[in-house]
Amino acid sequence: MPELEYLLFLGCAIPYRVLSYEISARKVAEKLGIELVEMPDYNCCGLPLDPASHDVMLTLATRNLCIAEKQGLNIMTLCPGCAGTLRKVNKMLREDRHEREKVNGYLKDVELEFKGTIEVKHLMQVLAEDVGLEKIKETIKKPLTNLSVAEHNGCHVVRPQKHIGFDDPENPKILKSLIEVTGAKCLDYIDETECCGAPVVGVNDKIPLSLARDKLSHMKAVNAQAVITVCPFCHMMFDTNQSRIERMFNETYGMPVLHYPQLLGLAMGFSPEELALKELRVDASKVVSLI
Amino acid sequence: MSERKEAPSKEFEAKATLKISDIDMRFKNEVKKIPGGERLMICFQCGTCTADCPIARFSESYRPRKILRMAQLGLKDMVLSSEQLWLCAACYTCVDHCPQDVEISSVIRALRNIAVREGYMPPVFKELAAAILETGLAYRIPELRLKRRQEAGLPQLPKADLKSVSKLFNRIGFSKVVEKGGNSNARA
Question: What is the ipTM of this complex?
Answer without folding.
Answer: 0.94
